[in-house]
Amino acid sequence: MSATHLVILAVALLVDFASAGVPLPRYEALLKQQSAPSDPTLGLYDDGDKVIRLSVDNFNATVLDQNRGALVEFYNTYCGHCRRFAPTYKSVAEHLLPWSEVLIVAAIDCAAEENNGVCRNYEVMGYPTLRYLGPGFQPGPQHYGQSLHTQDINEIREILAGMVAAENLTSSHNNSYWPNFHYLTENDSASSLFEGLSSVTQYVAVVHEPENTTLGVEVALFMTQWPAVSVRRVIDPAVAAKFKIDPTNLPISLVDRKGEIMAYAPESTNGESYAKKLWDVLGKKNITPRPVTVHQPSATPASKIKGQNELIDEVHRNKHFVYQADLEQAIRTVLHNEVSKVGEISGEKLLALQRFLTVLQRYNPLGANGHQLVSKLKDYVVQFNDKLTGSQFEEELKRLEAHLSPVYSSTHFVGCVGSSPRLRGFSCSLWTLFHFMTVQAANNEESQDPLEVLQAMHGYIKNFFGCTECSEHFQAMASRRKIWSVPNKEEAVLWLWAAHNEVNQRLAGDATEDPEFPKKQFPAPDSCSECYRTPDSKSENLEIEWNKDAVLGFLKNIHNPQFVSRYGVQREELLHPTADKMRQKRQISSVFTDMDMRMGMLLYAFCIVMMVLAFKLFAFKGYRKKPYGHDLLGKV
């Protein structure tokens, strides 16, 4: 046995309007009343953000049949693209906060199991997905809101302004804060501007809007929290001149009830700059926006932070361990979140699901109840030849779990824990699960198909994995690395290992990387020195020359079911007992050497000899006493 194997065996034993304003009262109420996912530390947004967190409990009440619109992001917490977009979306919510009486910015986490039905019903095919749901919105067939195909803040603002203005021109809303987006005409004058307006309105801001822009709409939306001002748009230069507007130099003017007009020049040509100019002018007139209250973010419980830090310490100590908890979390998330939220499973998707469940059944790391669950679920799915809905799958899954409960021995990540709940987690555990299954397949003589696990993995990632960008990257890499040409099962283990290292290299230093667990090539030199052909190849600045035979042996050892760590497992009685028994046997064999065993046998033989001698000695003494007793009897 190599030194590396001995080390492995031994170890196995032992996530600039902040200053200009804060949430409006009604928006503040939405923030406070929002229903967060079951674990409030999950998701990409928290109470400190201006993004309204949606869930199945508050989705309909917040965005359906309202007198305002909503921008909704459908996202997945573990999706790398979603994580990178989250800071931008937070900025969007902060930037558009003054619009909140007309438009709110919200998000729903499709990685949360309780939200499966919402994400499935809205036919979300990729993440992140942005949808505009207008006033009075009700979903219907092929009507799930208007999609925004951009992630640029300025473009989002312009598109939304156009959508909101179109709503105003085509619909009627019971919303007193909704601006008047109609253009001024030659019939309008300084005196007529105030007709129909509340007595609270002291000024009308007239904004010149260049053709094919939404500048005037944006200004009107930025001013909705200022009840003393109404905003009107003008596009005709002749009409604009009536209000002292010079489109080039003085594009905005302020009209009071006396008919006095004053024109102004903003610093730049965008809605934000125009609004800031008006805020500055109004502030000098001692006019302020509606009063607001500050929404204080809540802190993460200290007990949760402590428990998370303990897990991180454990993983740092045993960085190449494979944990049972991670394998189970991967399976549970795949079944409950990934597959269940798909609207219709047919054609290639159905075949991919059947293949995945077949492979999972064969190399299942769960306990006895888990084996029954996967087996029965696979039998249920393979009976469908045409199509299966995600809701049908979810219903059967929950029925089986209720019948076989309890199924899972753990409810949290261990080896895949992140320094933030928004980092690592499912994506890490999914890699772990597929590595585990390729190793089990390599050690299984019943199946000779070298592609069974890789094909199941490829089909799952292509058709069900929630991170669209990740899926596209993986498919491109699989094609480039010729996944369909892998010749045998051991090469399948190495193919997946090399592919994973390529992904680590690509994402090293990315915004999605956990600073506590930087992405490096695996295994590290201190975990498997034999995996490196020369000491120089261990340098991060040089291309690594791998000893693939040693890598294969290393991977087979750490993914051996007998070596899978049960640290952090809450219900170990649900798992197969053989692992502990085998571990005890290995502990015994490692404690007693061959010399110990030989000495033990000699001691045993010596004890036997001494017992025989003792027996003969006492027997002989007894024999000598008999004649004496006989003589006495004889004399009598």
From TrEMBL:
Designated name of the protein: Sulfhydryl oxidase
Signal peptide segment: 1-20
EC number: 1.8.3.2
One Pfam family matching this protein: Evr1_Alr
Family membership: Belongs to the quiescin-sulfhydryl oxidase (QSOX) family.
Membrane-crossing segments per the record: 601-620
Catalytic activity: 2 R'C(R)SH + O2 = R'C(R)S-S(R)CR' + H2O2
PROSITE patterns per record: ERV_ALR, THIOREDOXIN_1, THIOREDOXIN_2
Reported cofactor(s): FAD
Annotated ranges, domain Thioredoxin: 30-165
Domain ERV/ALR sulfhydryl oxidase: 419-522
